[in-house]
Amino acid sequence: MTRYSRITGTGSYLPPGRLTNAELAAELALKGVETSDEWIVERTGIRARHFAAPDVSSSDLATVAARNALEAAGVQASEIDLIIVATSTPDMVFPSVACIVQNKLGIAGCPAFDVQAVCSGFIYALTVADAMIKSGSASRALVIGAEVFSRILDFSDRTTCVLFGDGAGAVVLEASDTPGILASDLHADGKYVGILCVPGHVSGGQVMGSPLLTMDGQAVFKLAVGMLEGTARAALTKANLTETDIDWMIPHQANIRIMQSTTRKLKMPLEKMIVTVDQHGNTSAASIPLALDVSVRSGKVKKGDTLMLEGVGGGFTWGAVILNY
Ligand code: ACO
After folding, report:
1. Which residue among 1, 10, 62, 280 is least enclosed by CB atoms within 10 Å?
2. pLDDT value, residue 202
3. Closest CA to 173 of 204, 134, 207, 208
4. What is the fold, at CATH topology level, of the domain defined by 181-324?
5. What are 304-320's pLDDT values in tens digits?
6. Is the pLDDT of residue 113 over 90?
7. Tens of pLDDT, residues 258-281
8. Ligand 1: distance of its center to the CA of 39 in Å?
C-alpha cells in the first residue's frame, strides 16, 4: 500500500502585543520616522501586527502553536517522532529551535531540526517532513513555522519596519494510506542574496555587520510574482490538477498586492484566496501555517478540500505544496 502524509491538526499563536498601523506610526513619529495607516494599507494590505515581549522567543511561540495543533489532531506530544521548525529568527545560534521546542513539550529522543528558507521555510519544512514520512523514517511529525521578526527590524527604516510581525503556526503531519500531500515544488537562487537579507553574523564574540533586515522592496516584488506563478503551475502539473481543482489558495502573507497578482495570474478567483496579512503583517515562515489554522478554525477550509500553499522569501527561495486537507 502506498504511504502518504496528511495534516491531521493545525494550530497557531500570536503574541498578545498587538499594534495597529496608527499605533506603530505614532511610535515611529517619536523617532522622527514618518508613515501612516493609509500608506501601509494601500501598499501592503497590513492593518496590524503582533510583537512579542522582549523575553519571549520563537520557541515560546512555536510551543504554543504546536500544543494547539496537537490538541486539534488528538495526538499526545509523546507520540511525535519528528519535529521540524522553519525559522530565520532562532532563539540562539545553536541548538535549533526544534530541540528547544521538543524540550518545552516535555519529550525527548525524536529527531528535531530547523529549516532555514526564510519566508518559504514552512513550504520547505512540510516537503521534508512529507518525504521523511513517505520514506518510513517518521510517522507523526510536528511541522512548525515560528518567528520573532521584530528582533531584526530596523525601526528607523520605514520601508521595512511596517511590514513584519511575530507569530507561529504548526501542523501535525501523519502517515496515511490516503493522500494528503499531493505535490511539492521547491526552488532557490542564491544570486539574489543581497535584495533581502540580514547580513550580520557572530564572529570572535561580536556581531559582525548589521543584524537588521534590509530589503530592496521593488526588486523583491517583481521577482516574487513571477516565481510564485511558476512554482504554483509546476506544483499543479506534478499533482495532475488544474487551478479549477484548488478550493483554497493559501499564499505566504507578505503583501496583499503580491498575493492578488499571483492569484490573478493563475486565473483563480480572489474569493478563493485566504487573507490574514491584514491582521499580523508578514510573519515570514509562520505566515502560511498561521493562515491555514485561521481558515480551518473559521470553518472556511473543510476536510477534503484541495489547498495550494505557496511562498517566496530571502535566498531567494520559493515553492508550493498542493494537498488534500
Ligand atoms: N510610509 C510612508 N511612505 C513610505 C513608506 C512608509 N512606511 N515606505 C516607503 N515610503 C515612501 C518611499 O520613500 C517612496 O517615497 P518617494 O516616492 O518620495 O521616494 C514612496 O513611499 C514609494 O516607495 P516605493 O518603494 O516605490 O513603494 P512601493 O509601492 O514599491 O511599496 C513595498 C513598497 C510595500 C515595500 C513594496 O515594494 C513591496 O511590498 N515589496 C515586496 C516586499 C515583500 O513582500 N517582502 C517580503 C517578501 S519575502 C519575505 O516575506 C521575507
Report:
1. 1
2. 94
3. 134
4. Peroxisomal Thiolase; Chain A, domain 1 (3.40.47)
5. 999 999 999 999 999 99
6. yes
7. 999 999 999 999 999 999 999 999
8. 9
User: What is the share, in percent, of the chain residues with pLDDT greater than 90?
Assistant: 100
Whether pLDDT at 20 is above 90: yes
Q: How high is the pLDDT of residue 129?
A: 98
Question: Per the residue annotation, which of 252, 255, 280, 324 is the catalytic one?
Answer: 252
**What is d(CA 269, CA 55) in angstroms, rounded to the nearest whole number?**
42
Vertex 274 angle, CA 319 and 251, to 5° = 15
Residue 121, CA distances (Å) to 26, 101, 175, 255 in order: 32, 17, 21, 17
Residue 121 Cβ < 6 Å to ligand 1: no
Topology match between the domains 4-176 and 181-324: yes
Each residue's pLDDT tens digit, 37-53: 999 999 999 999 999 99
C-alpha to C-alpha distances, 284 to 66, 146, 203, 211, 265, nearest whole angstrom: 17, 8, 26, 17, 23
pLDDT tens-digit series, residues 120-147: 999 999 999 999 999 999 999 999 999 9
In the block, cell 503583517 appears at 281
> Rounded CA gap, 163 and 180, in Å?
33
Helices (H), the chain: 21-30, 37-44, 58-73, 97-104, 121-135, 158-161, 217-239, 256-265, 277-280, 287-297
- The residue with cell 501535525 is 172
Copy the grid coordinates of residue 169.
Answer: 503556526
Ligand 1 atom closest to Cα of residue 312: 48
240 catalytic? Reply is: no
Domain ranges of the chain: 4-176, 181-324
Amino acid at 314: G
Residue 90 has pLDDT above 90, yes or no: yes
* Residue with CA closest to ligand 1 atom 51: 313
Cell 499571483 belongs to: 262
